[in-house]
Design goal:
Blueprint (H helix, E strand, L loop, with lengths): L28 H6 L15 E5 L3 H13 L2 E5 L10 E3 L8 E3 L10 H9 L4 E3 L11 E5 L2 E5 L7 H18 L1 H9 L3 H15 L4 H6 L7 H10 L14 H9 L7 E3 L5 H8 L14 H4 L8 E7 L3 E6 L4 E4 L2 E3 L11 E2 L6 H9 L2 E2 L1 E8 L18 E4 L5 E5 L7 E9 H5 L6 H15 L14 E4 L10 E2 L6 H8 L14 E3 L11 H18 L15 H4 L8
Parallel strand pairs: 1-2, 1-12, 6-16, 9-13, 12-21
Antiparallel strand pairs: 3-4, 5-8, 6-7, 9-10, 10-11, 14-20, 15-18, 15-19, 16-17, 17-18
Helix pairs in contact: 2-10, 2-16, 4-8, 5-6, 12-15
Length: about 575
């Protein structure tokens, strides 16, 4: 297993693979995309009709790409750059091949719809060096001033295995983990829904920390503290302790935190390549058509206003003052933008959807990367025989430090710090150089004989997503009691349930999905929105390949009472 604290079920390659397709809405998006009949069509009389796609992140680009293939004309608006939180940047004055992932940087194999597009554009992936993963030469866990060097979990003191066992027991006792894992591998939708319906009703008001405390396995505060600081895959999860336990269960059920892979050359290549891609199978448009060619190379700029206008149209005003009206629009930006950066007509959504957007809880996140001359951390200490430096988990300011290289002797990159929530806010007032100085001081206390600074060959690059004007946070994470809000947003694409004067504007993006913070959720909700737009224009899917809206009534998310 790749996890610091592995999941409860040890599985083998002989078992069916798992996919991030539930448990709230167990729909096989990967099968939908792979079907030879395609994902739907619209009447020829609607070919060439314009559809606004607001936001050029992964969700927006996937939606625009698929709408273009159907014969519609997507008009993409993007305030910043194509990619959204798939943001890959270089280092000034360094080899352009040396890059840093400011947003998404690791993707689980269970992201099967995402993988469809990765394969489509010909990108390669490689194992990501998470703590104690096979791709990581060594890991140092540094807590309360005491460091432990490990290649596997068995190299750590016994208390870490006690914590692993406590988490496994907690999942079994409180969340039917083995049963759900088996049902998801077998795509046993009735069983998935049966298990999940009970858990949603039981756990909607429970925090992650409360779930741990309710288990006899975690009666020890020391075990809960270590678990929060070290975690079960990608590092400490104490920043998630106030969030709904349902959020965490979705991650562990779908193995979203396991077996991660990175995209060679950077994740932003995915939306950029889709933007330029000329599909071989498309209708209405001539061969050689791409999203880029439909936009003369550049998307339209920032959206500043959205209105409902006569005929139940959606009218979009952009930063240049240009005003265009559409029969359908897809909004893929973070939903808080509709409350602040974009002037919005109240008539765009029903009031309970506005409430759900206002209640959306975003987590903060910061990273800082530096380029270095070579992967010096692989040098062996003459006395101990250990790696000079390791992937590091600590309770110090840096929290998580990742070592990224392309081979011996080549320039490399260190993510000096990756932090979330309060830990991220601690960095917010500091300049990039000030951040780097504090980080190097913390790491110097863990590795007193290592001069990291002498290997640095360029200025640091950093991001605090809570301070990014078109994001205002890294990703959504529901608090206890937020399930009903999330259900409203996710199911918004089923617009035959809405009043006639509230249709035509579709929400998408990972914060609309059940798996926020994962690119898979961005893809899935984009496909939901595409189905909704298709239905809006009188289109349909092939009967042999029903879309998410066609099967909605059979697998709709659990509906909790609101009385």
């Amino acid at each position: 297993m790749t996890s610091t604290v592995p999941n409860a079920v040890q599985h083998t390659d002989a078992q069916p693979p798992i996919t991030m397709f539930g448990p709230d809405f167990p729909y096989a998006y990967d099968d939908f995309l792979a079907h030879p009949a395609g994902i739907g069509q619209i009447p020829a009389t609607e070919h060439g009709a314009e559809v606004a796609v607001i936001g050029g992140g992964l969700s927006g680009i996937v939606a625009a790409y698929e709408l273009m293939k159907m014969g519609l004309r997507p008009v993409v608006y993007e305030a910043d750059r194509i990619g959204g939180r798939l943001r890959t940047v270089g280092f000034e004055g360094c080899d352009p091949a040396l890059t840093a992932e400011m947003g998404a940087m690791r993707f689980p194999p269970s992201s099967t719809a995402l993988q469809h597009y990765i394969d489509l554009v010909g990108l390669e992936t490689k194992p990501f060096p998470n703590p104690l993963s096979p791709a990581t030469p060594s890991t140092v866990v540094d807590l309360k001033g005491e460091s432990h060097y490990a290649r596997t979990i068995d190299d750590l003191p016994p208390v870490y295995r006690e914590v692993m066992d406590a988490w496994n027991s907690c999942l079994e006792e409180g969340a039917d983990f083995s049963d759900m894992n088996r049902a998801m591998r077998e795509r046993d939708v009735p069983r998935i829904r049966e298990i999940w319906a009970k858990l949603v009703e039981k756990l909607d008001d429970q925090t992650f920390y409360g779930f741990l405390c309710a288990s006899d396995s975690f009666s020890s505060f020391r075990h809960r503290e270590i678990f929060g600081q070290v975690g079960f895959g990608t590092g400490g999860w104490d920043t998630d302790f106030p969030n709904s336990i349902l959020e965490i269960l979705r991650v562990v059920y779908t193995e979203a935190d396991d077996h991660h892979r990175g995209i060679v050359g950077g994740s932003q290549q995915l939306p950029l390549r889709l933007w330029e891609r000329e599909p071989q199978k498309l209708v209405h448009w001539p061969l050689g058509t791409s999203l880029s060619s439909l936009h003369d190379g550049q998307p339209r700029g920032a959206v500043t206003r959205l209105d409902r206008t006569a005929g139940n149209r959606v009218t979009v005003t952009d930063a240049t003052g240009d005003i265009r009206t559409y029969r359908a629009a897809v909004f893929t930006g973070q939903s808080w933008l509709l409350l602040s950066k974009i002037a919005c007509d109240d008539a765009l959504f029903p009031i309970d959807h506005w409430t759900a957007m206002e209640r959306t809880h975003y987590m903060e996140s910061s990273k800082l990367f530096v380029p270095v001359d070579r992967p010096f951390w692989l040098d062996k200490d003459a006395t101990t025989g250990r790696d000079t430096m390791s992937m590091t988990l600590t309770d110090r300011m840096t929290r998580g430090t990742y070592l990224l290289d392309d081979g011996p002797g080549k320039p490399a990159v260190i993510c000096l710090s990756y932090t979330w929530c309060d830990d991220s806010l601690k960095w917010l007032p500091l300049s990039p150089k000030e951040r780097m100085d504090v980080m190097l001081k913390s790491l110097g206390e863990i590795y007193p004989g290592v001069d990291i600074r002498k290997h640095v060959i360029g200025n640091p690059v950093t991001v605090s997503w809570e301070n990014e004007p078109y994001f205002m946070g890294a990703f959504k994470a529901n608090l206890p009691g937020h399930y009903r809000y999330q259900r409203r947003l996710f199911t918004h694409f089923m617009q035959d349930r809405l009043p006639a004067d509230k249709r035509g504007l579709f929400l998408a993006g990972d914060d609309i999905s059940w798996t926020a913070g994962w690119a898979e959720g961005a893809v899935q909700t984009a496909l939901n929105a595409v189905w909704g737009v298709m239905a809006q224009f009188g289109g349909a899917t092939d009967r042999t390949n029903p879309g998410p809206g066609d099967v909605f009534d059979d697998i709709a998310p659990v509906e909790l009472p609101e009385g």
